[in-house]
Structures are given as structure tokens and as C-alpha cells.
Amino acid sequence: MKKTIITLITLLFAVTTTFAQQKSEFRVPSGYQGFIDMNNLYTFSKDINNSIGVSTTHGFYFNPKAYVGLGMGFETNNDYVLVPIYAAIHYNFNYARPVSPIMRLRLGSYLGDGFGTYADLALGVRFASKRDFAVSIMVAGTFFEGYNREIYQEWMDENGQWHYGYEDGKMQPSGVGLRIGIEW
């Protein structure tokens, strides 16, 4: 019985020591940090094509969980080019582990084919490395305030004839998408 208890205590000590070492091998975020993200955006409007984008954010971790920074991006498809400029808040829920849930909020404005308010909320997972590097995968909801623009239209009248032309319309490029990023 004594041998079994001593073996179990030794095994428990070895497992605990291994997990403690694993936990400390991963870098805890601090100080300056930069992000580059690539995304796709599935728009809510049936008249607008889906888009792709890239963004970069630079700022500081004020503690291992909370990050504040400024950034800009580039969102485009066949219908528009938008350049969001924003302030960002990033939160790591479990920074000491190699895999951590994260949340990122961006608020600002956009320029380009239109001008208006920009907001973005992303939830995902951060995969940290042993060095000053991490990869994240997030699901994001993006809001671009609608703007007026001439929109190409095709329609058929009651006689079955097709008509083509431009009409004034409101562009609503908001949507949801997948975002993959790196942090250094």
C-alpha cells in the first residue's frame, strides 16, 4: 500500500511540475504589440458582393489581458473600396495558456467610396507561441454606416425586356466574416 501511495504522489508531482513548466513557457503579452489581420466579409445586402480586407493595429498591453491601440484597414470588392481608421480594445481571457479566448472591439470611421461610422466586434481564439508571436482566428461582425451611391441595376419590365442603368441607391456593406491574424 505504501508503494502505491508513494508512486501516486510521485506521479502527481511529475504531472503538476510538467504543467507548471508548460504554462511558463508561453510568453505573457506586455508592452508594445502589433497585429495584422486578413478577413472576408459576407455582406447582409443582396445587392453587394462579399469583400476581402486587411488591417493593422498598433498599441500597448497595459496588463497581460488588456490591450489598447490604433489602426487602419482596407476593405474592397467590385463595388467599393473602404479604409476604416479606428481605436481598438483587445482582451485575452486566459493569457497564461497557449490557447486563449479573445475579444476585440474596434470603433472609428471609414473613408473611401463613402464616409461614415465604423464598428467591429470579433470573438475568437488566440494561439500563443514560446516567442513574441501569436496567431488568432476570430468571427467578426462589422458595421459600416450606409452611404448613397449610384448602383448598377438590371431589371425586366412587364413585356419581358431587360433594362440596364445606374440608379441612386444606398450601399450597406455591413456583414459578418472570418478573420485570421498574427500578433508580434
Question: How does this structure look, described?
Answer:
The chain is mainly β. Helix content is 13%, strand content 62%. The protein has one helix at residues 2-25, and strands at 31-43, 51-61, 66-76, 81-92, 99-112, 116-128, 134-144, 147-156, 162-171, 175-183. The protein has an eight-stranded antiparallel beta barrel. Strands 8-9 form a two-stranded antiparallel sheet. β8 (147-156) and β9 (162-171) form a beta hairpin. It is elongated, with a radius of gyration of 24 Å. The relative contact order is 0.19.
The percentage helix is: 10-25%
Radius of gyration from the alpha-carbon trace, in angstroms: 24 Å
Low-confidence stretches: 15-24
- Find the count of extended strands (DSSP E, 2+ residues): 10
Count helical runs.
Answer: 1
Provide the residue-averaged pLDDT: 85
Q: SSE order, as H and E? A: HEEEEEEEEEE
Strand % is over 45%
